[in-house]
Amino acid sequence: CLPLANDCEITMEARVHDLVDEKLQTWFARGVNRISVGVQSFDTQIRQCLGRVDPKEVVIENLQRAASYNQAVIIVDLIYGLPYQTVEKFVDDLKIIDDLPIDGMDLYQLNVFEKSLLKKSLDTGKLPPVATSAEQAEYLKTAAEFLEEANYKRLSVCHWAKSNRERSLYNTLAKTDADVIPFGSGAGGFVGDISVYMQRDLKKYMDSIDKGKVPIMFMLRAPEFASLYKDIQDQTESCGVNLTKLAKKYNKELMQLETVLDIWTEHGLFTKKGHMYRMTIAGQYWQKNITQSLIEITKKFLNAKTSINEWLTEKAMNTFKKKIEN
Fold first, then answer.
1. Is there a domain that residue 137 lies in?
2. Per-residue pLDDT tens over the stretch 212-223
């Protein structure tokens, strides 16, 4: 047995049909104290077009069953921008979550991957078009306003707590410089400035264990300033940027990045109060792009021989625009 802390968060990523008594009792007996369920939508038509066969009534019943044990935090994942989804149906989903005896929710925008079955169904007209970027932003705005009015606690850009039991530790700490120790075939993590990736091939993984060897596929040393980049990501995951903290911890010249954030503030992605830049709903929607752009700009700035103001004003928006276009 591993010497785990008594407040360790142990999450089971589950589907609706997993929430039966036999499995639930086994999970709890083995120490699971958090269950994250990929509901995506409660609407039966939307679920079935995604290949999720359980209707709304079964989803609700199974979530109630899991919560009735009072042995674990119960979290639901929702996606916005789905085929057949409307703002009205999405609000119905939020109301269902608010009525259920669960502890929080995660919210993600739809990503349509090339060569996926969903992409094929959309291209052939088997499914109606998904939401545009502007429509997806409206879904996020609707959710943020609903959850704020319902007094949910915002844990990160994608995570909300309904009760004090939900901490979402992995989701928040994995974006920082905390150590993440990988276990299992295909797992990845990092310890200090070393990234570690375990063997993906299950046979090779098991053979290594049988021989008494650690089944590591490869390791990489993190690049220079990796800790800074993680701190930037940690801040943007919390829907804001505090350059003062970054400058005090790493390099006072980082305060020059105000040039970038001021440009983005002028374009409606942030509001500024003192040294704190807070993301607007538009900024929250583009959070991943903002994070990638800010890290890329920071890398270039740290390697530059000139003042950031001499070359960055134009690059700040150009870099971000390219991210959006891609």
1. yes
2. 999 999 999 988
